[in-house]
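Fig. S4 source data, part A: sequence.
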Amino acid sequence: MVTASEEYSFTSFSSLSFYTKINERLLDLAEVGKHRKIVDLGCGTGGITKLILERLQSAKDTVIYAVDHSTTALKVATDEIGDHKDVVINYVHTEVQNLTGSLKEKVDAVVYCNSIHYVPDKAKLVGQIKEKLVPNGIFAFNTSFFEGSHPEDSLEFFRKWMMRSLRILKREHGLSANKSAKVESRVQLTAQNYIELVEDAGFKVLLNDFNRVEVPYEGWHHISGFSDWIEGVLPGVPLDIGRQALQKGLAQIWDEMNLKTVPRVWLSVSAAKT
């Protein structure tokens, strides 16, 4: 279950300008605006849906399916996006893994921003996406959780941040992380693994793009509020306590290292159904 605190963290994170630019890049590379029937998978509060609307070459007869598991997020999206002339926006409440049963028609494009790493059975999901696409339909996704997302010059920051957070956890709460536990988003694939994932499902990869992004303090602060991040770096620790330790450790290390940003790499992939 997604808590109100996590909903706030993700909404705040997704509104940061650097994150918007990352997703604009994916949508532009995949030329999503050319299509008539588009799925925004894991739409959250509608940030990507808005970007898709801005890129439509012709709004007439366009249908956008905004799909998410959170009723709270979908309500926010509905309220913020409102009505658009000539564009039908269908808000679909379902887990992304249930895509086949939730969409009744085939679509031209599916966009999945920074979430594919959460999915335990990625091959099954990609297979469902292919099933719902028309011939030559586009599947475009990005992720910052893959092997290679941490540039060499960011490793000192991560090492110091994690060590400081662990010390805070021990000193202030008497707790230690259980390193034997690991959530799915922390079991990271390589970029080649992702390419093979879509190719094995019957897609032709059109682009495979690496984008180094300078992430500000606010980005790391909000990331520290995500349950999958907390469970990944501090496994076995209660979420509220883990969040407090990570955010306190972040603030201390950020000041001590006199940082303005820390880099991270996003992988973007666009593929066509063959």
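Fig. S4 source data, part B ends here. Residues 42 and 269 are 16 Å apart (CA to CA).
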